[in-house]
Amino acid sequence: MNAPNVPVLMYHHVTPAGGMIAATPDVFEAQIARLARAGYQSLSAGQFAAYLAGGDAPERSVLITFDDGYLNNWVHAHPVLARYGMRAVLFTITGWIGDGPVRLHAGQGGPLPATPDHDACKQLVAAGRADEAMLRWSEIEAMLAAGTFEFHSHTHTHTRWDKVCGADTDAKRAHIAQELRDSRETLERRLGQASDHLCWPQGYFDADYVAAARQAGFRHLYTTDPFGQNTPGADPGHIYRFAVRNQGGSWLNRRIWLSRDPFWGPRFHAWKAWKKRLRNRG
């Protein structure tokens, strides 16, 4: 039986530091183990794209995504995915990734590198110390070789050019176009290829962003909008994702069921959207 729709899960960090947009390693393992026991299969970006275009996917399918490319994705998420035979898609800020030898990950023995929380990672990047927070190309290559992660664009510098440029629309458009060129060229140079999958920084996009993405060859555009279902024939230019909380596997299974059920899913999303509108009015 074909999947009624494919929920797309959004992670950022897996770290004992916890904090905002993070799962702790124990919780992440509980979530992935529960998905595996329930018979879910994690799709590749290519399989997901084929499904959106009208193809088949196993009835219990998910797409697991990570944003940005933090070191903790290698140290803590990679060994869990490998243990359970699952895979994830990582949207990479290509300008923040550096060179150097592969660092230790959990399960290898020896002291692990520090994996700071989200705010500390942002501070390290701003201070020119991105290597302490972000992946290295050597680690990306190791994850690719292991089949736990594949890598796609999250722009080159994660800059919101609509904020930086203000009313200067021409400058905004030029910067966005350059961001996407730099990201694509970096992925091609370092990994040998770049796909047509792109995730928006901070989930923001407008008509200029979408036009630039399409001009640059990106067709599958990932949002932070959780209020919809990804079904065969759905618009690949607006892919729905929901943020995974730092809660156990039973929470995630319930959340996936609510997202994927053909009857309750649309009603759940409409209710959540209504609640968000009420909060915004208040």
Automatic annotation (TrEMBL):
Gene, per the UniProt record: icaB
EC id: 3.5.1.-
Domain NodB homology: 60-282
Entry's Gene Ontology BP terms: carbohydrate metabolic process
Domain of life: Bacteria
GO molecular function: hydrolase activity, acting on carbon-nitrogen (but not peptide) bonds
Keyword annotations from UniProtKB, A to Z: Hydrolase, Signal
Broad class of enzyme this protein falls into: hydrolase
Hydrolase as UniProt keyword: yes
InterPro entries, alphabetized: Glyco_hydro/deAcase_b/a-brl, NODB_dom, Polysacch_Deacetylase
Keyword Signal on entry: yes
Organism: Achromobacter agilis
Membrane spanning residue stretches: none
Designated name of the protein: Poly-beta-1,6-N-acetyl-D-glucosamine N-deacetylase
